[in-house]
Amino acid sequence: MDQLIKQCLYCNKKMQGRTDKKFCSNHCRSSYHNTIYGNRTNYMRRINALLLRNRKILSDLFLLQRKGSYIPLSELYIKGFTPQHFTHQAKHTGKTLYTYCYEFGYYYVGKDAVKIIQEASIES
After folding, report:
1. CA distance 25 to 23
2. Quick one: pLDDT band at residue 4, thresholds 50, 70, 90?
3. Do 43 and 24 touch, CB atoms closer than 8 A?
4. How many whole angstroms from its chain centre is CA 47?
5. What is the pLDDT of residue 121?
6. Quick one: which of 3, 7, 33, 86 has the most CB atoms within 10 Å?
7. How far apart are CA 114 and CA 118, in angstroms?
8. Residue 85, CA distances (Å) to 38, 80, 93 in order
9. Which of 21-35, 54-68, 109-123 is most confident?
10. Residue 76: which of 63, 61, 93, 87 has the closest Cα?
C-alpha cells in the first residue's frame, strides 16, 4: 500500500504517518490554531482586560471611600477608568441609573462626582 507524503499545515515540512495527520508536531498544531483563532479572541481579551481594570479601580476606591462620600471623576480618570466599558446598567430606587463593572457599580452625583456601590450578593 502506497503512503501519501503529506505536508504540515503550519510549516509545510514533509511528514509521514497516519493518513489523517495534519501537523508534524504539537508546536506546529498549537501555532497554527493560535494564528487562526487568536485574532478572533483578541478583541474579547482586550475588552475583558478593560472591564477588569475598571472593576479594580472601582473596588479600590470603594474600599477607600468613607460612608456617604463621593469620588471625584478626575480621580477615576487619573487611575485609567474608562466609563464606556461596563458590564450592565440598572435603575434602582427612583430614576437613578447605576452602571456596573461586574459587582461594583456607580452613579453620577452632579457632573463631577460618582458614588460607588457594591452589589450585596451575586446570585449563582
Report:
1. 6
2. low
3. no
4. 4
5. 64
6. 86
7. 13
8. 22, 12, 23
9. 21-35
10. 61
Task: Tell me the CA distances in angstroms from 95 to 65, 110, 118, one per residue in order.
Answer: 24, 14, 18
**Which residue stretches of the chain are H helix?**
26-64, 73-78
Q: What are the backbone dihedrals phi and psi of residue 55, each rounded to the nearest 5 degrees, phi first? A: -60, -45
Q: Is the Cβ–Cβ distance between 106 and 98 less than 8 Å?
A: yes
- Between CA 98 and CA 107 the distance in angstroms is 5
pLDDT digits (tens, 9 = 90+) for 6-55: 899 999 999 888 888 999 999 999 999 888 887 777 888 899 999 999 99
Q: Is the pTM of this model over 0.90?
A: no
Give the separation between CA 40 and CA 119, rounded to whole angstroms. Answer: 32
Contact 74, 113 (CB under 8 A): no
Q: Report pLDDT for 122.
A: 60
Cell of 104: 461594583
